[in-house]
Design brief:
The longest helix has 25 residues. Helix 6 crosses helix 7. The protein has 12 helices and 9 strands. The chain folds into 2 domains: 173 residues, 3-Layer(aba) Sandwich (Rossmann fold); 151 residues, Aspartate/ornithine carbamoyltransferase (Rossmann fold, 3-Layer(aba) Sandwich). Strands 7-6-5-8-9 form a 5-stranded parallel β-sheet. It is an alpha/beta fold. Strand 3, helix 5 and strand 4 form a beta-alpha-beta unit. Bound molecules: N-carbamoyl-L-aspartate (NCD). N-carbamoyl-L-aspartate (NCD) binds next to helix 3 and helix 7. Belongs to the aspartate/ornithine carbamoyltransferase superfamily. ATCase family.
Length: 332
């Protein structure tokens, strides 16, 4: 490492140490667990981790001696590897549980699994499950700290945090921006967590999608609801596209994916309604040619999709560091 690279890495670590604070809750289950100053503190801490992650040497000992268990009952590529990298870069022992080879496949219940794993004394449990409320249920049965990595159609709070980080870095702020969340809102935990956190941070949120994919009384979330994408995107600063969650649909919610693309797929023509300089986001995995055209998804001048993946590791490092600080505070 050159002297200046060494200095930058050292400065990043010093910044991180100065920004660490004890997580406000025992578990991170919902985006609503954070108030505005707490969310801003986590974003500041995450920013410092972005700087660290861009160095050659990225490993710290903040979680040394701690065990992080990734419990992914549902398939995931980026979220699981993001938490795994976050844990490893912080010096934790990371265990990935694969439900397909575990006793869950043999009929063990979620609670049995939780109680068994709890006996191995994990400090942090990162949980993804197809049922809404699973992470909360599990948090009542274990002594470690639970992070909800997506429970059914309910919440995915670290996704909302990484999205807010991507937006804040692109625009310098979140407050006052208009964010249009478009597509399969009905089945989306990403949308629910984002609505909550974006509101906390002072953004105004619109939901855009066909009536069949919009939750009943979505207006009650304090958002504007649009079924016409052109009106929904008009003047928006951020266009957040959602994946058509075909695996959660029983029956036909859209006539065909081709027709869906015609009315709701984001292409340059529809995007031209948004504000000048608008940014496009997608939590991944993308259905190209269904909810988003590759032409906009892959344009680095407008797409934040790759930034979101990078910010995911930093945002999760911030959450894990802050939860670890809470463990220290409790003297465990
Ligand atoms: C999201 C999820 O799993 O909820 N993806 C992710 O976390 N990267 C969104 C999705 O699956 O469409």
């Amino acid at each position: 490492m050159t002297a200046s690279a060494h200095d930058t890495a050292h400065a990043a670590i010093e910044t991180i140490r100065a920004r660490v604070f004890a997580f406000p809750k025992r578990h991170f289950l919902s985006a609503g667990d954070l108030n505005a100053p707490q969310a801003a503190d986590l974003l500041d801490l995450a920013d410092a981790f972005v700087a660290l992650n861009r160095q050659t040497s990225k490993t710290l000992d903040i979680l040394k001696g701690r065990t992080l268990m990734n419990l992914f009952f549902e398939n995931s590529t980026r979220t699981q590897s993001s938490f795994e990298l976050a844990g490893k870069r912080l010096g934790a022992d990371v265990v990935n549980m694969n439900p397909k080879t575990s006793s869950v496949a043999k009929g063990e219940t979620l609670i049995d699994t939780a109680v068994t794993l709890n006996a191995m004394r994990p400090d942090l449990l990162v949980v993804r499950h197809a049922s809404s409320g699973a992470a909360s249920l599990l948090s009542q049965k274990v002594s470690g700290h639970v992070v909800n990595a997506g429970d059914g159609q309910h919440e995915h709070p670290t996704q909302a945090l990484l999205d807010a980080l991507s937006i804040r870095r692109a625009f310098g702020r979140v407050s006052g921006l208009t964010v249009a969340i478009c597509g399969d809102v009905l089945h989306s935990r990403v949308a629910r967590s984002n609505v909550a956190l974006l509101h906390t941070l002072g953004a105004s949120v619109r939901l855009v999608g066909p009536p069949t994919l919009m939750p009943a009384q979505a207006e009650r979330w304090g958002v504007a609801v649009h079924h016409d994408i052109k009106a929904g995107l008009a003047g928006a600063d951020v266009v957040m596209m959602l994946r058509l969650q075909l695996e959660r649909m029983q029956g036909a919610f859209v006539p065909s994916t081709r027709e869906y693309f015609r009315f709701y797929g984001l292409d340059r023509e529809k995007l031209s309604r948004a504000a000048p300089g608008a940014k496009v986001m997608h939590p991944g995995p993308m259905n190209r040619g269904v909810e988003i055209d590759s032409d906009v998804a892959d344009d680095p001048a407008i797409s934040l999709i790759q930034d979101q993946v990078e910010m995911g590791v930093a945002a999760r490092m911030a959450v894990l560091t802050s939860l670890a600080a809470r463990i220290e505070e409790a003297g465990r």
